[in-house]
Design brief:
82% helix, 456 residues, 17 helices, mainly alpha
Length: 456
C-alpha cells in the first residue's frame, strides 16, 4: 500500500457504516421472505393443499436454476468492492458489464432449454400427479422471468458493492410489493392457483428491473464524476473475465450444493405425505424469513470485507466479522425465542388443523437450525467479500456430503422418517459453521494474498 494512503477508519466509524449498510439491506432482504410467506398464506387458505405443495415442489427447480447463477450477485459484489477499495473505478464499471454479459447468456440458455429442463426436473422430483400438474403450470409461468432475474442479480450485486443500500431497498420494495399485489389478484381474485403465483413472480421481476436501470445508471455516472480521468482496460477477453469466471465456477459449486440440500429436503418430504411436504414448506419459509434478516448483516459484511481486503486492512476485516457475528446471532436468538413462546403465530399461515399441528411439532428443530444458520450466513458474507470462492465451494461440498446426505438418506430410505430430515438439516448447518470457521484465521494474517485483477 502507498505510504500516503488514508488511515483505516476507527471502530466507531466502521460500526456506523456497517449499520448504515445493514439496516436498508435488512429491510430489502426481509421483503423477500415476507412476499414468500404471503404467497404461501394465500395458497394455504385455498380449499386444497395441492397448489401450496406444487409451488413448494416446483420452486425447487427455480432454486437450482436461478441460484446456480447466484455468482452474478455475489461475485460482482466481492470483486467490485475490492476494486473500490483499491480506487479502481474503471475496473468496477467493467465488472458490471462482464456480469451482465454472462447473465444474458445464462437467461437465453434457460429459455431455449425450458422444455427439457422441466421434463428432467419433474421426472426426478417425487410428487402426487395433481401436485405435479399444478407444479408444471407454475414452472411454465415463472421460467419467463429468467432474463430479469439474472439482470437483477448483477444490478443488486454491483449496487451493494458501491454501498447503495437505499437503492437495493427501492428494488426490493417495487419487486416484492408488485409480487404481493399480483399474488392476491391472480390467486384469490382470478383463481389461477399455482400458475397465478408463477405469473406474479415473473411480472414483478421485470418491474424490479425497470427500477434497477436508472439506479444503476445514476451510480455509474457518480463513479465517472468522482474520477473523470479513470483509465479502463479491456472489458472483455479471457484475461479480464477470468477472475469472475473462476469465482463464478466456485460459487456455482457452492450454490449447487446448498440448493441441492434444500431441494432434497423438499423432495424427500414429498415422499411421506402432502401434509409433511406442505408443513416443511412452511417451516422453510419461516427459516427463510430469519435468514434474510440475518442476510442484511451478511450483505453489509460483504461490502466492507471487500473494501478492507482491497486495502489489505486485516484489522478492519477482524472488526467487521466480529460486529456481524454479534448482530447476526442476537437477531436469530430473538426469532428463536418468539417461535418457542408463541407457536400460535403459525396459525396465521394456514387454517388447516393437521398442517398447523405438523408445523408446531417441528418448531424445536427449526429453532436449532436457524441459530446455527445465522453463523453460517455471516461467514458466507465474509468469504464472499474476500472473493474466496474456492474456500466457500470446498466448505459447502463437505457440509453437503458429510453433514447433510447421510442423515437425509437415512430419513428417506431407512427408518429415520420426517424427523431425521431435520437432523440432516441441523448437521448441514453445523458443518458449514465448522468448515468456514476454521478457514478464518488464515484470512486475518497480514501476508494473506489479495485477489488482484488480471494483467491488462
Amino acid at each position: 500500500m502507498a505510504t500516503d494512503s488514508p488511515p483505516p477508519p476507527s471502530r466507531s466509524v466502521l460500526r456506523k457504516r456497517f449499520l448504515a449498510l445493514a439496516v436498508p439491506s435488512i429491510a430489502a432482504s426481509l421483503l423477500v421472505p415476507v412476499q414468500g410467506l404471503v404467497d404461501t398464506a394465500l395458497l394455504g387458505h385455498l380449499d386444497a393443499v395441492e397448489p401450496l405443495a406444487a409451488v413448494a415442489l416446483a420452486g425447487v427447480i427455480f432454486d437450482l436454476l436461478y441460484w446456480s447463477f447466484g455468482f452474478l450477485r455475489m461475485g460482482t459484489t466481492g470483486l467490485t468492492a475490492q476494486a473500490i477499495g483499491r480506487e479502481q473505478t474503471g475496473e468496477a464499471q467493467a465488472l458490471l458489464l462482464r456480469a451482465l454479459t454472462l447473465a444474458a447468456i445464462g437467461a437465453a440458455t434457460m429459455l431455449v432449454l425450458q422444455g427439457p429442463i422441466a421434463r428432467l426436473a419433474f421426472a426426478v422430483l417425487d410428487g402426487a400427479p395433481a401436485v405435479e400438474r399444478a407444479g408444471r403450470a407454475y414452472y411454465d409461468a415463472r421460467i419467463w422471468a429468467a432474463p430479469a432475474v439474472l439482470a437483477n442479480y448483477c444490478a443488486m450485486g454491483w449496487l451493494l458493492a458501491l454501498s447503495r443500500g437505499r437503492a437495493m431497498l427501492a428494488l426490493a420494495l417495487v419487486g416484492n410489493g408488485a409480487n404481493i399485489a399480483l399474488d392476491y389478484l391472480f390467486i384469490l381474485e382470478l383463481g389461477w392457483g399455482a400458475a397465478g403465483a408463477g405469473w406474479a413472480t415473473t411480472i414483478s421481476q421485470y418491474a424490479s428491473l425497470a427500477v434497477a436501470v436508472p439506479l444503476v445508471s445514476r451510480s455509474w455516472s457518480r463513479l465517472r464524476a468522482a474520477d473523470p480521468s479513470q483509465v479502463r482496460g479491456p472489458v472483455f477477453g479471457l484475461g479480464v473475465m477470468r477472475p469472475l469466471l473462476r469465482l463464478g465456477r466456485d460459487i456455482w459449486l457452492r450454490s449447487f450444493a446448498l440448493i441441492s440440500a434444500f431441494a432434497l429436503f423438499t423432495s424427500f418430504s414429498a415422499v411421506f405425505s402432502s401434509t409433511i411436504l406442505a408443513a416443511n414448506a412452511i417451516l422453510l419459509k419461516v427459516l427463510g424469513l430469519v435468514s434474510y434478516v440475518v442476510d442484511g448483516f451478511a450483505l453489509a459484511t460483504e461490502t466492507l470485507t471487500g473494501e478492507h481486503r482491497g486495502r489489505d486492512d486485516t484489522r478492519g476485516l477482524e472488526t467487521v466479522l466480529g460486529m456481524a457475528t454479534i448482530w447476526g446471532l442476537a437477531t436469530a436468538a430473538g426469532f428463536a425465542l418468539t417461535f418457542l413462546l408463541a407457536p400460535e403465530l403459525f396459525h396465521l399461515i394456514s387454517d388447516q388443523p393437521e398442517l398447523v399441528a405438523a408445523v408446531v411439532d417441528a418448531r424445536l428443530a427449526l429453532v436449532a437450525v436457524l441459530l446455527l444458520g445465522a453463523l453460517a450466513y455471516i461467514l458466507d458474507g465474509y468469504f464472499i467479500g474476500l472473493a474466496a470462492g474456492r474456500t466457500m465451494a470446498r466448505a459447502m461440498l463437505v457440509s453437503f456430503g458429510l453433514g447433510f446426505m447421510p442423515l437425509a438418506l437415512w430419513a428417506r430410505y431407512g427408518e429415520g422418517g420426517p424427523e431425521a430430515l431435520w437432523w440432516a438439516m441441523l448437521a448441514f448447518m453445523a458443518a458449514r459453521v465448522v468448515t468456514l470457521g476454521v478457514a478464518v484465521p488464515a484470512t486475518l494474517r497480514a501476508d494473506e494474498p489479495t485477489q488482484r485483477p488480471a494483467p491488462r
